[in-house]
Amino acid sequence: MSTTATFQEAIEKGYTFKGDSITLGGGKLGEEAVPNTHIKVPLKTLNRHGLIAGATGTGKTKSLQVIAEQLSLKGVPSLLMDIKGDLSGLAAPGTTNDFIEKRHAGIGLPYDPMPLPVELMTISNGDGTRLKATITEFGPVLLSKILGLNDTQSSVISLIFVFADKKKLPLIDLKDLRKTLQYVVNEGKEEIAAEYGAVASSTVNTIMRKVIELEQQGAETFFGERSFDPVDLLRTDENGHGMISVLRLMDIQSKPKLFSTFMLSLLAEIYGSFPEEGDLDKPKLCIFIDEAHLVFDEASSALLDQLEVIVKLIRSKGVGIFFCTQNPVDVPDDILAQLGLKVQHALRAFTKKDREAIKKAAENYPISEFYETEDLITQLGIGEALITALNEKGIPTPLAATICRAPLSRMDVLEPAEVDALVSKSKIAPKYNEEIDRESAYEILTGKIERAASEEKQAEAREEQEKAEELLREKEAKLREAELKRLEREEAKREREEIKELERLRKEQERARKQEERERERMWKDVTRNITKGATSSRGGGWIGELTRGLLGILKGK
Q1: What does the alpha-carbon distance between residue 25 and residue 59 come to, in Å, rounded to a whole number?
Q2: Is 136 exposed, middle or buried (CB count within 10 Å of its CB: 0-12, 13-18, 19+)?
Q3: Beta strands in 107-157, from DSSP E residues, in sequence order
Q4: Alpha-carbon gap, residue 249 to 339, rounded angstroms
Q5: The whole model's pTM is what?
Q6: pLDDT tens profile 490-511
Q7: Radius of gyration (Cα) for the chain, nearest Å?
Q8: How many domains does the chain have?
Q9: In terms of residue numbers, what domain contains 479?
């Protein structure tokens, strides 16, 4: 049997499956396509994740486009993270030419250009449905990992979430988080210390700097409401084709922390909200992360650990994750080991480091009797790739050099007018693009602080008023006391004058009495003298004596 026949037999045996599959291209041996060697991937194993790698310009983005198209035609929705802006063309039909016709004839596949159902999305203020999430949905663990916090700082974030939950403070966006952090070391310091223990200002200041760093990368547009519901990624169109959600991230290359923040939060939300499914006949959702090295280059070890856990576990939710990057070495080994499908486009060796990377990349593929993998990786043409997948039993398929099929949709971007038209037809954009700014932690705490300040001012005003009233009362008391003393003095004076007057009257009466006594004595003496004279002259008898005795009796009676 010839080498070609042996190759055909190996490919047919290795890439024939009982269940449904998608076709990525045709096998290649030497420089020519080998007939009847369609390279397929069983839908059943696409929740085992995948890798699309290759140097710039070798066709990995087109492979991503092809896989997303074929999945859509099988009713499987997908989410594509479009870093370079190349994928909006999925919404428009491709155009054929002699090169494409010849290519497809060589691999035995028809070429029927068509548009696919596309939903344009954004995490900034760009065109498309806005994807947002709240701080609360992140939770303290994920938020701490994204911010790169140590254990002490993470414990403060946990405290913030507990405090906000207890006080019913919605943590929606970054201003809510900042305001709450400020509150626990300023206005609410005593309250927090009494209930949870003291929080060091230096720790909070460090966290604040981390939050500001994230904010400077544009995260303030990502955090907020309305939160995106991952279920809206699972839609199909009226033809049963899976919706391809293209997340436009063209401005994200300079903001790797924001990219990793979004990606990890979305994966965590999907994992948390999707039910356990086990191994389905086809995945519920496939996620393609283009330029994945942006995630891994900037991620902390804690973030990578979290990502590894999610990659391991999310397959049970019926979700497949595909990392697209320039070199397999960009992907951490622990994550690379979880990837079932591998599509390796050409790598270029310009330096010793490049050659070492190529050697390491070749070691990730099954040994083939038909190829020298390390050499072939550098010899692949544009639109060609080494492919291996998992069969339905989870066993790697034979390594196949593949001439990849061309995308059915446009291999270019949409024009601005086409983008506007596509967004205007969206069924979910009106829901998610509505501006919502309900009362949350920022407004509640700001109001509380303002009320406290107002109450403090009112208390100060009351205190000032009370002081003024006290001074007035003291002044009035002094005036009353002075008046009382004046009245007492006047009363004393009046009493003295009355006493003096009484004394004067008494003295006058006494003088009058004495005068009266003197008058009586004088009269008595006069009467006595006259009587004596009369008696002497009348010899003491007769009526004169009787008169004398009567007068004496009257005078004595007085």
Answers
A1: 13
A2: buried
A3: 118-122, 129-130
A4: 24
A5: 0.76
A6: 888 888 888 888 888 888 888 8
A7: 54
A8: 3
A9: 443-557
